[in-house]
Amino acid sequence: MESSQQQDQTSTERRVMSRIDAALRINYQVITEESALKDPYDPDFVLPRYFLLLAELDQFDQVLNNELEQIKQQDQPVGQVLSLLNHKLDLLTGCLYDSIVQTMLPQPENVNISASGLSFYSKQPIPDDSYIHLTISHPENFFHLASIAQVVYSKQVDEQLYRTGAYFVTLHPHDRTKLAECIDSMVQDSESHT
Question: How far apart are CA 35 and CA 46, in angstroms?
């Protein structure tokens, strides 16, 4: 009974939240129910190297920006110098990304996504109620997140592809916030162009 109430709540939540169709880099692997209890960033999961690199750079940048704000409040000239150094670091990171990382990245795929779940194309059917570990990256580096999701459906759409829908079981609050902000921004952009 509790499980069906939770699924009803999840279904309602999925319908209420903003959804977008976006080209995202996505990797998934089917996992056991026991593994679904782990943190999505657990080293036992196979996380692609490009994802680890981009996620670490993103995390480093976030911590650095927070620290810079505190330093600027305490000592403005030192904060200004550190901001300039951070800008140079961003330029170097961008060069690294352009020259090396781009060659490691999978092609973006069309994904329908919200802060509560997603649907994507898979080459094999994934059984309903099974758990999957996901890494999702925005091609313009707005977010890089790992999640654990539970499959709701996997329907054949043609001879070679299945449309798979899943809701996030484990998504760090920070990742969910970043994803929601990105989705809201894209929805606003599309509404302003119409």
Answer: 12
Beta bridge partners of 167: 117, 150
Q: How many CA atoms lie within 13 A of 31 on its CB side?
A: 24
| Structure token pair of residue 36 | 């679904």
Give backbone dihedrals phi and psi of 147, rounded to 5 degrees, phi first.
Answer: -150, 160
- Which residues neighbour 113 within 8 Å (Cβ) at sequence distance 6 or greater? 19, 20, 22, 24, 119, 136, 179, 183
Give 115-125 pLDDT, tens digit per residue: 899 999 988 99
| Antiparallel, parallel or unpaired: β 20-31 and 131-137 | antiparallel
Q: Using the structure block, give the residue that is written with the tokens 């903003």.
A: 18
139, 24 Cβ separation under 8 angstroms = yes
Give, as one character, the DSSP assignment of residue 126. Answer: -
Instruction: Report the candidate in 147, 101, 141, 102 with the shortest Cα–Cα distance to residue 120.
Output: 147
**66-91 per-position pLDDT tens digit:** 888 888 888 888 878 888 887 787 77
User: Residue 99 has what DSSP assignment?
Assistant: I
| pLDDT for position 15 | 44
C-alpha dihedral, 63 to 69 to 70 to 72, nearest 10°: 140
CA distance 132 to 29: 5
Give the tokens for residue 192: 């302003």
* 191 CB-near residues (< 8 Å, 6+ apart): none
